[in-house]
Amino acid sequence: MNIVPKAATIIAIAIAIAMTMTTPAEGPPATAPAPGTPPAGFGAIYDTTAAAIARWDGTFRPPPVVRYDGTERIDGYTLEADSAAYYNKKIYISAGAFDGNIHYIIAHELGHAWEAHLGDYAPTTEGSELFADCIAGAAAAAAGYDYRAMAGYTGGFTSSDNTHGTSRERSAAVLAGAAHGHRSCEAEHL
User: Nearest to residue 189, comparing CAs of 139, 137, 130?
Assistant: First the structure.
């Protein structure tokens, strides 16, 4: 399923390529938290992103977050040590997932919660994953976060089970959501 028109995809890819050609901001490097440690402000990031989504219809209630170390078994499914998932009206985030772009991880999993809220959640399908990426971009833009960094983060990701789309499709979905808002994601998905 292609969630953005081809012209928008080409533009999004060009933007993503251009972003990789910019130089990083100058200044001392930020001190990163120890691996597996929730970054400072994790709760605030979650709350701000969830609030941005809740404003879309006034009835969305963000799911609770379950943090785990190692692997987690849920109904016969194993969540890996460096992953995050939306399942059974909860967001599961492993300690290892904190080493990634936490804004993206939170917004993506909240995207699945929004999809479930709309009544159209189909776990582990490419369409569902690209929808969550699109919603992640829309939510990040609405919350005032850097959706361009999210698109760059997804640009380096390829799922081993081919359920999440290509890295190019994922980046394009984030950028499309940020540029056109959640309704454009829903129009393509529902």
Answer: 130
pLDDT of 17: 34
Q: Where are the beta strands (DSSP E) in the chain?
A: 65-68, 72-74, 77-79, 84-87, 90-94
Q: Residue-wise over 3-33: b if at least 16 C-beta within 10 A, else e?
A: bbeeebbebbbeebeeeeeeeeeeeeeeeee
Which residue ranges make up each domain of the chain? Answer: 38-59+101-189
- List, for residues 159-178, the tens digit of each pLDDT value: 555 667 788 888 889 999 99
What's the predicted TM-score (pTM) here?
A: 0.74
- Predicted local distance difference test score (pLDDT) of residue 101: 78
CA distance 153 to 69: 23
Residue 69 amino acid letter: D
